[in-house]
Write a structure and sequence with these properties.
mainly beta, nine-stranded antiparallel β-sheet, five-stranded antiparallel β-sheet, 3 helices, 21 strands
């Protein structure tokens, strides 16, 4: 007698459009390179103007298993009109006590930055032009670099030496895993099971990416099955699904930030009120978007 085989359906991602669930991604036919936003996903996002050069929106996603009800919150930021800064937890040795609630009255956007090991920032860290920690190593690591000239660059691990030698770095942090590299390429390590990363684990996710027009995009997912009271439960998308999400949102490069019970985001609305998605855990490092100093003028530069 021949053995019986059970074939599981491929993972899919759907979005609610006008009350109807529409599939926009399938794992078995997933693109290895994203060249443009996914129209189905784009049409579902409800965009709102925040301050000049910043807009945010949300949508309802559905993924397999525990990700069956997932909320997406996404922010797009024009770096020509704003500046980015890193904030460390207050105290000694990178105290893990930062949250979006402590981002300050001048912050327009705030999100937890990087990954953390033993509740310390992992990898390369530069603030105010001073290197506080050397680069970490890993095939899926990537640095986000904010130049003193106003450029924002996403630098792969094998290019960090050149970035450090180049100088002119105002702030930088390193994170992992990389979700998109090159010009929208999904890393090979995200295509098949690997001992380097658990591709099946579902969690709340946070990621930062660079769009083709130079804007910076931040995406956060939240558990959305039981209302706001359960939104902090760390369930949601897998890493490959998050890579697909960032590509479908129009990013050419992207990297994960710490999600789970650390993932948090705040956006200042047009009326000055702060819209917040908070977390259970305080962290040692945050990234904030601030107004340009009075009299300064930026220019949008798409950097390689």
């Amino acid at each position: 007698m021949l053995p019986a085989f059970t074939f599981s359906a491929p993972d899919t991602l759907s979005v609610r459009v006008n009350g109807v669930w529409r599939e926009w991604w399938r794992a078995d036919v997933a693109p290895a390179r994203w060249t443009a936003p996914a129209p189905t996903l784009s049409s579902a996002i409800r965009w709102r103007a925040a301050t000049t050069g910043i807009e945010w929106g949300d949508a309802e996603l559905s993924a397999p298993g525990e990700g069956w009800r997932t909320k997406l919150v996404v922010v797009r930021i024009d770096p020509a009109q704003h500046r980015f800064a890193l904030q460390l937890g207050q105290g000694v040795n990178f105290s893990p006590n930062w949250s979006v609630d402590s981002a300050g009255d001048s912050s327009l956007v705030a999100v937890n930055a990087g990954q953390f090991g033993r509740m310390l920032p992992w990898g390369w860290l530069v603030t105010n032009g001073h290197e506080l920690a050397a680069p970490g190593s890993g095939p899926l690591s990537m640095a986000v670099v904010f130049d003193s000239s106003g450029d924002v660059r996403f630098v792969a691990a094998d290019s960090l030496a050149g970035a450090r030698a180049r100088g002119r770095i105002a702030s930088a942090f390193q994170s992992y895993p990389t979700l998109l590299t090159g010009d929208g390429d999904v890393p090979a390590l995200l295509h098949a099971p690997s001992p380097n990363i658990d591709l099946a684990h579902r969690d709340s996710r946070v990621a930062i990416g660079q769009m083709r027009d130079g804007r910076i995009l931040i995406a956060v997912t939240r558990f959305n099955a039981l209302g706001d009271a359960a939104a902090k439960i760390p369930l949601g998308l897998t890493v490959p699904e998050m890579a697909a999400l960032m590509g479908a949102l129009g990013c050419r490069r992207a990297v994960s930030l710490d999600g789970g019970i650390s993932g948090q985001l705040a956006v200042r609305e047009a009326d000055g009120a702060m819209q917040k998605w908070t977390a259970w855990r305080l962290v040692p490092l945050g990234l904030v978007v601030l107004p340009q100093p009075t009299g300064s003028a930026g220019s949008l530069r798409l950097t390689q």
